[in-house]
Design goal:
291 residues; mainly beta; seven-stranded antiparallel sheet; 26 strands
């Protein structure tokens, strides 16, 4: 009989901060505190719905480097525009995902899409950082635009909600994201009063973020948004029951990399000497530049 994954920690954050001038985010976990415990996941920021007035100058984050990991950006409302030093450029809107592999080093910027900025509106999005094993930290940088129509959706029984499979596999359905290590990333919507049981690999690290609504895990622990529940790797199931309104959750589940983490700002390597090398490479222009 499958054993449940038990909750080891619940993190609640009701103090948002600004990233650039375009993202009002709740930081729910970071590599400094949870990088090893949640490997391969390093960081998770959630930008709750925020109204932005019209402007001719798109808000967001200006050009900056990354090296040694991947960024995953999920848009729920609004529209974002990305460009980077490899020449990649993309626009994503509600339901779309941007999966950027920094690897050997990249310089990019992320801003509100220009036409959307002129009209103004509500921005709601999330960004996840996913670590890379040492053997891939010097891989060629890459970029995946994953549009809403490419992401399969599975209906839960009895009209209980839906699961969108961004990466990995849910039951017999696979997600479109190409990953370097086994990870499952699910956009889970659970209707009020309904429940579902997730079946996840034993030994994989798991974090579930409640971005809206209240839920109870394994009939024991109740949480409200905005919070993240961290589960012990042992076990294979998690039962989730929604409260008196619909719940929106992001399920993160992955095989731990089990390598040292050395991090400094936008660089994530295995040893401090590699961080010094990354800084030198960026200053020397080896990660490219944005015009």
């Amino acid at each position: 009989m499958a054993q449940p994954k038990q909750i080891s920690e619940v993190i609640q954050n009701d103090q948002p901060h600004w990233v650039g001038d375009g993202f009002r985010v709740y930081s729910l976990f970071s590599m400094q505190e949870h990088g090893e415990k949640l490997s391969p996941f390093l960081l998770f920021d959630y930008a709750a719905p925020t109204q932005f007035p019209p402007t001719d100058k798109p808000r967001g984050v200006d050009s900056h480097p990354h090296k040694g990991f991947e960024t995953v950006t999920i848009v729920y409302q609004g529209a974002l525009e990305h460009r980077d030093s490899t020449g990649s450029h993309g626009t994503i809107g509600p339901g779309d995902v941007q999966w950027m592999t920094a690897a050997a080093g990249i310089v990019h910027e992320e801003k509100h899409e220009r036409q959307w900025s002129r009209q103004g509106g509500v921005m709601q999005m999330a960004q996840l950082w996913v670590n890379l094993p040492a053997q891939f930290k010097s891989a060629t940088p890459g970029y995946q635009t994953i549009l809403k129509d490419q992401i399969p959706t599975v209906a839960l029984p009895e009209g209980g909600g839906t699961v969108r499979i961004i990466a990995g596999q849910y039951q017999d359905t696979k997600g479109p994201a190409k990953t370097f290590t086994p990870v499952n990333v699910f956009d889970l919507r659970l209707k009020a009063g309904h429940s579902t049981t997730l079946h996840l690999p034993d030994g994989f690290n798991t974090a579930i973020t409640a971005m809206d609504g209240a839920v109870t895990y394994n009939d024991q622990t109740s949480v409200q948004s905005v919070s993240v529940a961290i589960f012990d790797p042992a076990g294979e199931t998690i039962r989730i029951e929604a409260g008196d309104r619909d719940a929106m959750l992001l399920v993160l589940n992955g095989r731990p990399i089990n390598e040292p983490i050395a991090a400094y700002g936008p660089f994530v390597m295995n040893h401090p000497d590699e961080i010094k090398e990354a800084i030198a490479d960026f200053r020397a222009g080896k990660m490219g530049r944005l015009d």
